[in-house]
User: What shape does this take?
Amino acid sequence: MDYAFCSTDITELSKAMIEVQKNLLPAFRDAVNPYVHNRYATLNSVMDACRNALLEQGILLTQYPVPVDGDCLGLVTKFVHAETGQYQASLAVIPLAKRDPQAMGSAFTYGRRYALSAMLGIVPEVDDDANAACGYSQAANRQKQVRTPAEQKQVSTAAKSPSTRRTPLSTMLADLGLSELKPQYGAYLRNQYACSPDKLNAAQYQEQKAILERCKTEPLAKRDLIRTLHEYR
Assistant: This one.
């Protein structure tokens, strides 16, 4: 399809986008891929990183589907400078594994996150959760989780420590004032690791401990955890 990717003049829009990029927030790795068990920044996290910066510069962000050839989703991401009407846009074409609402929704969320990150230069971290949109199986795509040296040291230490020395994750959740979400947290853990919460291995426990500890000091991380847990009602 023919598509204009920018207005004739984008001078004022470019000036505004420079200010946007100066004020972008970090995109926190706030979720774990259930297939390859690596952390990635969700669409919510990417939006949190840029929403206020865009609004402060009078930039309208819109993302919407468009028809494209084949079994694909066409996704337009567009920035519009409200004062001048100047705009810049991209078109992402995402293959669909199946022709059903679930595959469409997964591809749409996936595409929105990646298109927005690419246009703004947001770099959360490398991840491989495209399998949700492309239909790859868990067995065919299981990879080692990528961890920082500090996280690897924490996991190694946890593996050498007796499980009896673990602080229960439910206790850590209660320390965050979220004890009422304990059932949802249990369901979340079973979904992420395919086992009951009390059967988590050392690495899985350490991963969740790090997430809960981060929630103590990062309000956005805590908010996103709450939002994630509410999906398991």
